[in-house]
Amino acid sequence: MTKSILLVGVGGQGTILASKLLTTGLMEAGYDVKMSEIHGMSQRGGSVSSQVRYGDKVESPVIEIGGADILVSFEKMEALRWLKYLKPEGKAVVNDFEIESMPILNGKVDYPKGINEELVEQANATIIDAATKAKELGNSKVMNIILLGTVVKSMGLEEIDWEKIISGNVKEKFIDMNIEAMKIGMDLVK
């Protein structure tokens, strides 16, 4: 049976690195894996999404509307934007984090209020504060690995050797911090 994971965020949040680590771990565990990335204007704070599908035999990397088992959003407005891709019984993990888009920065519109409430009302959504946890670890850049940890736990992928995957893909001086970030993420979801 094929499982579908949708990771969404804003350029610069590490969404693509998280999806590459996830894909590497799934392949090493023997799954057939397909991954598709969409970089909007990622370098300018635009929307970024990564679709990861895995199972015994995966035909397509594309997740259709209503097809994601889990939606992990690195920024809460992106969660709302991509929510229609979540299966009715799917789970959303949302980082309670705001990045203001250009229209907001230019004063044309305000950042929407009540997003978390709307997400919880519309889906099985868990709101987490990965930014604060990352700062407590001493580096806000590990927010993406905390969010990856939520995917690992939510999808029951704890048996994969994530320490090995992280060690092989991040700079040596950041390995321990990233492993700790993964554990924190896993502890943030039930």
Please describe what this structure looks like.
This is Indolepyruvate ferredoxin oxidoreductase beta subunit. InterPro entries: IorB_Oxidoreductase, Pyrv/ketoisovalerate_OxRed_cat, Pyrv_flavodox_OxRed_cen. Keywords: Oxidoreductase, Pyruvate. GO terms for molecular function: oxidoreductase activity, acting on the aldehyde or oxo group of donors. Residues 11-186 form the Pyruvate/ketoisovalerate oxidoreductase catalytic domain. This protein has 190 residues and is of the alpha/beta class. The model has no long low-confidence stretch (mean pLDDT 93). The protein has eight helices and six strands. A six-stranded mixed sheet has the order 2-3-1-4-5-6, with helices on both faces. The chain has a single domain, classed as 3-Layer(aba) Sandwich (Pyruvate-ferredoxin Oxidoreductase, domain 3). β2 (32-39) and β3 form a beta hairpin. It has helices at 15-28, 76-82, 102-105, 115-122, 130-137, 143-154, 162-167, 175-187; strands spanning 3-10, 32-39, 47-55, 68-73, 86-95, 124-128. α6 packs across α8 (175-187). The protein is 38% helix and 24% strand.
